[in-house]
Specification:
The complex is a heterodimer.
Chain A: H1 11-24, H2 37-44, H3 48-60, E1 64-67, E2 71-74, H4 78-102, H5 107-122
Antiparallel strand pairs in A: 1-2
Chain B: E1 3-14, E2 17-28, E3 32-36, H1 43-50, E4 58-63, H2 70-73, E5 76-79, H3 91-101, H4 107-116, H5 130-142, E6 148-152, H6 160-172, E7 179-183, H7 187-190, E8 196-201, E9 204-210, H8 211-218, H9 222-229
Parallel strand pairs in B: 3-7, 3-8, 5-6, 6-7
Antiparallel strand pairs in B: 1-2, 1-4, 8-9
Classes of the chains: A mainly alpha, B alpha/beta.
Chain lengths: ~120, ~230
């Protein structure tokens, strides 16, 4: 799996986002076991302590569960995943709307454009 | 929190010129640390002091609380800036040599890395390119199960693909007990694997910070910050 890390933002935040995407997109479905910190760190070519911190944050958010003896897994609670996923979507849409506003579009116009495109795809 | 390397008021003068002046530094175990600074800032002097190749003019440098000597060399694996190996030797012979010399040398690991980098153990050093020699040297250093690795410019002469492999090797060797100190100019290549960076200039520490703190506070990479701080 390719990890894309940009150089101007904290590595830790980017790791969190990318692991979240892996969970949301179903690469790691609910209940799936995650690779070890060491393997994940090696795969992403990042410091193991940084990976450890990212996983700790995901655990705090409830997306990941640490088992005392058998490593980490994705939560089986689909509602937690859904909630985090929705929040991410809201963030993305807000950013997009802000960009459109800067381009001089009213929200209504933006929605019309979206509908037009979505409609186009359906046909 | 256990300290593996400690410098107190460390000073080294060459004649009138101070290479290091009153330097203070503490490195914990389980860290990968970048020692970054412009040419002539004192990086190599610091690493040589830690290996007893130089002695301090004042102050001290301690490894697990001991001054550099026989005991510390058992736990420190050092990659010097220049090769000291005999040209006529075959890689295989050098591996035997290292394995006689250091109890913590892991031969299997060495042969495995040689295989990954397509280096023939029967080859003599003198038949090898500069980059291949550097790879051999680094393999020897990383094949020890040491507690402190001091790597002086480990990736300068090798191609980008080998560089990636070497960084992976450093990561795969990582353990909570060992610290790796890497001095280099190739910051953008290594900054993702570092816990901390130490900026050194004119023999003094000018900044110690985690990579993520720099990115968070300055909104730029360590590489970009270095270029800004040490702008000529």
């Amino acid at each position: 799996m390719p990890w894309e890390l940009k150089s101007d933002r904290p590595i830790y935040t980017q790791l969190i986002e990318q692991i979240e995407l892996l969970i949301f997109s179903g690469v790691y479905p609910p209940g799936a076991k995650l690779p070890s910190v060491r393997d994940l760190a090696q795969d992403a070519a990042v410091n193991p302590n940084t990976m450890q911190r990212a996983l700790a944050k995901l655990e705090e958010d409830g997306l990941i569960i640490t088992h005392r003896t058998s490593g980490r897994s994705v939560t089986e609670d689909a509602s937690i995943i859904k909630k985090a996923k929705t929040e991410l979507a809201q963030e993305q849409v807000s950013t997009f709307l802000e960009k459109m506003r800067l381009m001089g579009f009213e929200q209504k116009e933006t929605v019309e454009i979206i509908n037009g495109i979505v409609g186009g795809i359906k046909i | 929190m256990s300290i593996i390397l400690e410098c107190n008021n460390l000073t080294k003068k060459f004649g009138n010129k101070a290479a290091l002046s009153s330097l203070h530094l503490q490195l914990e175990r389980g860290r990968i640390v970048g020692l970054l600074g412009p040419n002539g800032s004192g990086k190599t002097t610091l690493i040589k002091l830690a290996n007893q190749l130089l002695t301090p003019t004042a102050g001290d440098i301690l490894i697990t609380g001991k001054k550099p000597g026989v005991e510390t060399k058992k736990i420190v694996s050092y990659l010097p800036e220049r090769t000291y190996l005999n040209d006529w030797m075959r890689v295989q012979q050098i591996i035997e040599f290292f394995s006689d010399f250091y109890v913590d040398f892991n031969k299997e690991k060495a042969y495995e890395m040689l295989r990954s980098l397509n280096i023939n153990p029967d080859d003599r050093l003198k038949t090898m390119s500069k980059g291949t020699k550097e790879k051999v040297q680094l393999i020897l250093v990383m094949s020890r199960e040491a507690q402190l690795y001091l790597l002086d410019e480990p990736i300068g002469g090798v191609d980008p693909a080998a560089r990636d492999y070497i960084l992976k090797t450093i990561l795969s060797n990582y353990n909570e007990n060992a610290t790796v100190l890497i001095s280099t100019h190739l910051i953008s290549d290594i900054e993702n694997i570092l816990d901390y960076v130490v900026f050194i200039n004119q023999g003094q520490i000018v900044l110690t910070s985690s990579v993520d703190d720099i990115r968070k506070e300055k909104g730029k990479s360590v590489d970009a910050l270095f270029r800004e701080v040490f702008k000529c």
